[in-house]
Amino acid sequence: MFTEQQQKQLKDTVRPKIGEEYQSTENNALSVVIEKLRFESPEKFLTEYSMEKRVFSHQPRQIIPMAGYKVKLRA
């Protein structure tokens, strides 16, 4: 988990939605912050090796891909 300061850096560089849509152009400021965090704390980012070792806390049991991650909303 990132520190509170690192989380704040990320939140401060994320651009808001325009209406209901996210901005489609690249956010260079966010890319810079991510690379800085990757340099400061490489253990907090997944790599090909760490992805193989990842354990899901809610692993789907359905045959349909991602069906186990869908959650019904309450009315």
Question: What's a concise summary of this model?
Answer:
The chain is an all-alpha fold. The protein is built from three helices and no strands.
Structure description:
By secondary structure, this protein is mainly α. The protein has one domain (4-69). The chain contains three helices and no strands. It has helices spanning 4-13, 28-40, 48-53. The radius of gyration is 17 Å and the shape is extended. It starts with a helix and ends in a 22-residue tail after the last helix.
Multimerization state = single chain
Low-confidence stretches: none
End-to-end Cα distance: 33 Å
Order of helices and strands: HHH
Category from helices, strands and their pairing: mainly alpha
Count of alpha/pi helices: 3
Which range best describes the helical content: under 10%, 10-25%, 25-40%, 40-55%, 55-70% or over 70%?
Answer: 25-40%
The biggest sheet amounts to: none
Strand fraction equals under 5%
Mean pLDDT: 78
Overall geometry comes to extended
In total, the number of strands is 0
How many domains, in number, for the residues? 1
